[in-house]
Structures are given as structure tokens and as C-alpha cells.
């Protein structure tokens, strides 16, 4: 293995990005609304402006009530996210089991995430960004604040700065509040469609030299028992296998399809005294009404799970009072409402504290869990 092998995916992505950037510059893509910078690519268009205005004009009272609730809840979101980051950082520092890792979702398959989860993350990001940007646009046009573009919604900042605090609070909280509302909708769908607990261990793949695969175990089968010991989830399966030694003969009961297999356990690559079946697993949570095959229900559950994680996580982080997040501008408006004219110093302190909290969570997550990217 070459020393450069771990960096090949990174070099590939850099080469592709350089090619895209160079092509955009050569073709003068900015004339067509495509803004290319060394660190981002953005579409600016007015095509959707009238569409957003039409959406805003329909059910105007309903939209106003929705965004007024968001503006009020912005205070709670701001306080909650700061408390959550402090609490999690303390928990990580103390190695508390209640503290979880802070993950960076950077969708670079093969480098920061696996190809297997890339489609789910891409879908979750779309479900995050489209309502988020649309909400900023609708909240703006409700009070006749002009939109400059609607690819990534660009608001007329000079016009917005002259508006009442209520309008600004609506606009700045709109994105995160809409993401919270979308998260709640996904949660309702999860509860409505899936049972509350797993009923087996789904076999999504096999390791090299897998004893289970050699015995004829099908992919997407569900392990329900091992040696007549019920395995309702992957944790129970792992605990039972930890009581065995490599070379043990086991009887595995499966569903999808229903069958019983006998096999000899292998040994773990990282612990030669630990018995394994050589399967890559996930908890199998069945649908309340079986209208999809097992594979599709697993994919749907996985998609919902990533949506839940990304929608809530980004909604909260975006409300941190940290420049250039929406939380910084929300805090600035809130300070103005409270009568503070010079808000720069307070915003600077809030940004420094927020950056420290975010950085400490990421650093401690890397130290304790060995990565800050989803696996």
C-alpha cells in the first residue's frame, strides 16, 4: 500500500473541482447566473421569484402565523442549542455515555462518507435545503422585501435592514424553524409507518470469508434466533456471540426467507478470541403494514433516519449566534429590540463562544470516537 493511497480520493475531488472552476471561468458562467468561486458554486436565478411570491400570497395569514411562531421560537432554539453544546462538550470531556459525537456531514463519497450512505445523505440535504431556502423567500415576500435571486434565495439586504424587527426576526428564523417543522413531519411518518422496536437482525452484507455467506445465508435475510436464543436486535446478537469461541457450531434461524442454517463461527480480525458470523447488520424494524419488500422498507427507514439527523442538527447549528449563521443575525435583531444600539461587541463575544463550543465538540468527538464523519 502506497503512502499516497489514503489521499487519492482527496486529490481526485480537488482535480474535479479545479476543472469545474476553470471551465466556469473560461465559459463566463456568471453571465448565466452561475457564480463560481474557489470554495463554492452557486446558482443565481430569478426564474422562481414569481413562483415564491405566488406561494406567499396564498394563505398569507397562515404563513404569517407560521413564521411568527418561528420568530418566537427562535429565542428558545438559540438558548437550547447553546445549552446542548455545553452539555455535550462536558459529557464528552467526562467520557459520559450520554454524550454523543458531533458529526460533520461533508458529502464526499469515498473520502468523508461511504458510497453506501451517499444517496441517503444527498436526499436528506435536498429535503433540508429546498424548504429552508423557500422559507426564507416566503418570509421575505410576505412583507414585500424583494428577492434578488431564488436559486439560493438572495434577499435584498438593504431593504430588509430598513424593516421592522418583527419582519427581520421572521426572515432570520424562517429557515431553521421550517427545518424543525420538516423534522417533526418526518418523525410523524416514522411513527405512523414503522413499528416501535426491532424484531430481528437484518443481514445487509457479508465480510470477506464470511461463515454465514459460505453456509448459504441470503443477503437481506433476517436473523431471529441463534441456538434458540432470540436476537431482536444487533446488540443482542453481538452479546450472544461474545459468549462463544471461534469454531463453535451454531444454528441460525432466519426469516425472509424462513429457514434454518447450521454453520461454524469464524474469528474476528481484531480479536482472535471473538466468534463472528461474518455479517454486516442493521436492526430490522418492520413496517406496521407490509406494503414494501424488506429491502425497500430498510432503505425507507434509513432515508428517514438520515433526514431526522440532518434536519434537526443543521436547524440547531444554524441558530448558533455565530457569524455567518442565521442565529447571529437573529441575535443582532433581538438586541436591537432590547434597546442595545451598538451590538457589534456582544455579537463578537457570542460568535467567539459559539465557535469555541462547536470546535470543542468536534475535537472531543474526534479524540473519543476516532472520526468526525458518519460511518
Summarize the structure.
The chain has eleven helices and twelve strands.
| Major sheet characteristics | 6 strands, antiparallel
What is the mean predicted local confidence, pLDDT?
A: 89
Helical content, roughly?
40-55%
Shape: elongated
Number of domains: 3
Task: Give an overview in words.
The chain is of the alpha+beta class and 375 residues long. It folds into 3 domains: 5-43; 49-194 and 301-369, no CATH class; 200-284, PDZ domain (Pdz3 Domain). It is built from 11 helices and 12 strands. The protein has helices spanning 8-26, 49-57, 60-93, 118-141, 157-161, 165-193, 211-214, 234-241, 294-318, 326-337, 344-369; strands at 34-37, 40-43, 147-150, 153-155, 200-206, 222-226, 229-230, 249-255, 259-264, 266-267, 275-276, 279-284. The strands form 4 sheets. Strands 5, 6, 7, 8, 9 and 12 form a 6-stranded antiparallel beta sheet that branches. A hairpin with a 3-residue loop joins strand 8 and strand 9 (259-264). Helix 3 packs across helix 6. The longest helix is centred in the first third of the chain and has 34 residues, at 60-93. The protein is elongated, with a radius of gyration of 25 Å. The model has no long low-confidence stretch (mean pLDDT 89).
